[in-house]
Amino acid sequence: MLLAAPSRPTGRAALWASAAAVGAALMLSGALVAPAAHADDPAGYTGIVLGVASNETQRTVSWYTSADTSQVVQLAPTSAVVNGQFVASVTTFAATGATNVSTTGYNRHAVLSGLQENTQYSYRVGSDGNWSPTYSFKTQSFEGDFDFLFFGDPQIGSSGNVAKDGAGWADTMNVALTANPNAELLVSGGDQVESANTEPQWDAFLAPDQLRQYPWAATIGNHDVGGKAYEQHFYTPNTDYSSAYYKDPTKTATTSGGDYWYIYKDVLFIDLNSNSYDSANGGGDAAHVQYVTDVVNQHGADAKYTVLVYHHSIYSAADHAKDADNKVRRVDFPTTFSKLGVDLVLQGHDHVYTRSYEIKNGEKANPAEQPGQNDVFVGEGGVIYMTANSASGSKYYDITAPDNSGTTGAGNGPDPLKPSDYWYNSVQNQEHVRSYVKVQVRADQLVVEGIRSGTCDAPNAAVEQGKVGWCGTPGSSTAVDGVGSLIDSVTIHPFHGDGQDIQVDVPNQAPGEFGWTIDGQNGLVDLGTAEEKGDYFEATGEINPISVTDTRSSLAPWSLTSVLGDFKDGDKTFSGRYLGWTPKVVTDGAGATAGAPVSSGYDTGDGLAVSRVLGSAAQGHTKGSALLGAALDLKLPTETAKGSYRATLTLTALAG
């Protein structure tokens, strides 16, 4: 590309009876303009949602459409969108989809790939002349620390009032992302809606604009699984839709299912359809265990943490704590999760907040770990299990009491350190207040926080403790208040074995820069008075040295060229072709080689009246700086009129 001349030094260099001056060249850039997709498309677009894809360089976009037509996603850096128009740097991604099952219309999705880090993007769906509104999202660094947010059971419609549930869900979105604008993922605990195929509930769930700005990592809940709407609304990456991962293997055409995985930065996320658990009716837990095993074996080495997500909490404290299916999973899952080195398991379903002790092979790993302990240094095979409360406030389940069924495996016995709680839970909390979970992924720790997104709004809460509608902490006479306040916080320190793991962060190589300047003072290049040499005049001298610096990591080629204008003195003139030169490298560096000598046009050719190379470097040259010079040789016909002539030598840098 052509590079702009450096800003210093200012002024012009001129030849006296021959002169050199610095001229700037404009930087040029190209833009890819998307082709027209399809004219006069009558489709309408609803339910647009941004989703996770295979890794941090990708996103998915899914939507419903009223017409079965060819549609695309247009994507461009927001800086290239002018007055809402996608006029430059546009990339088009073709959408695929099918006819909706159990509802009207069609579904579409597209995978956006090749994203650049730390970039704000704008996108829209549709076709030429008929586009959706424009939405935007921002990528961040593709390496290192990041935060994600986990949301339990919005279950829009569960209260019987879709508008109320939707308002609570929207408020949680606003609270969570106002407090955490740089969160990079929104992770679902399942049960997006109350009724699997009821589109008004889906409309309310998908209403918050944050779901078009941050990628939603969907999870199937028991209220999502009974219809096809879940699969139609969310396209998930690397999904295995084999019948083993459906609750009923005979109904894959009319219900939702599938297990999937993706890697985001240093975390391998694996998402399971926990509605399929009964091996007698399909793959069940055995299939999930094999799926997790295969994914970890194939991709675990590509990440530093492994996080599992599924709906049915196996270590919860409310209405579902003693469900038979959860007791089955509590036997089927933990040993494999410990063996595979899973760090964190995120769950929903029970509409209560819980955080387990460190669990290994289905038992409390460290008997000395205290209830509510804020730092947990896990041993080999230690796993922390979290359950998220309702993010919308549509439904809460009250904490239930332990029984005498035992304190290991499937048992629901009491915690010896806190007999009112279950043996497996370090923290149990039910305040009837909306909340979400924040997970901070750091180099050597996971920080997990339960955070309130609502307030206690039950009437006379302080005197209604224990009654339906009570919100507050059991045993306390004060109702909870304080949006953004912490319910719980724990820092999980991973296991490193007996050796010493050593980590170093290597940044992107600095791009460096290419540039040139006049070395020293940019004075007049004075060739003095030409001497008569028989049938011609001759004058000689040297250009002001040119300093060239190239620190670009690409080690791309460069060249510095020049062209000389005509010499003028009032209305008198002669051609710049009469000046020739012999370039030289005064100081080695930056791979510089001198350009070829150019004879005065008095002898032959066009001299410096056409572009000539002062110096250049080939691809792969060394970084650094060089000093370039040139000896000047001016020859003129003796009939040239007397005068003091000046010309301008313009230098241009060309850098690959």
**Pairing-aware structural class of the strands and helices?**
mainly beta
Global mean pLDDT: 89
Q: How many DSSP E strands?
A: 44
* Overall spatial form: elongated
Proportion in helices = under 10%
Distance between the termini: 6 Å
Low-confidence stretches: 1-39, 458-469
Strand content: 25-35%
Rg computed from alpha carbons, rounded to a whole number of angstroms = 35 Å
> Sheet bearing the most strands, described?
7 strands, mixed
Number of helices: 6
Short description:
The chain is mostly beta strands and 656 residues long. Helices cover 9% and strands 33% of the residues.
Task: Describe the secondary structure blueprint for this structure.
Layout: E1 2-3, E2 14-16, E3 45-51, E4 59-65, E5 72-77, E6 81-82, E7 85-86, E8 91-94, E9 96-99, E10 106-112, E11 120-127, E12 130-131, E13 135-138, E14 146-151, H1 162-179, E15 185-188, H2 199-205, E16 216-217, H3 229-233, E17 260-264, E18 267-271, H4 284-299, E19 305-312, H5 324-332, H6 334-339, E20 344-348, E21 353-356, E22 359-360, E23 363-364, E24 375-377, E25 384-387, E26 414-415, E27 418-422, E28 425-429, E29 435-442, E30 445-452, E31 486-493, E32 514-518, E33 525-526, E34 531-532, E35 536-542, E36 546-550, E37 558-564, E38 567-569, E39 572-574, E40 579-587, E41 593-594, E42 612-617, E43 624-637, E44 646-655
Parallel strand pairs: 2-33, 14-15, 15-16, 18-19, 19-20, 20-25, 24-31
Antiparallel strand pairs: 1-44, 2-44, 3-4, 4-10, 5-8, 5-11, 6-7, 9-10, 11-12, 11-13, 14-29, 17-18, 21-25, 21-28, 22-23, 26-27, 29-30, 30-31, 32-36, 34-35, 35-43, 36-43, 37-42, 37-44, 38-39, 40-43, 41-42
Helix pairs in contact: 1-2
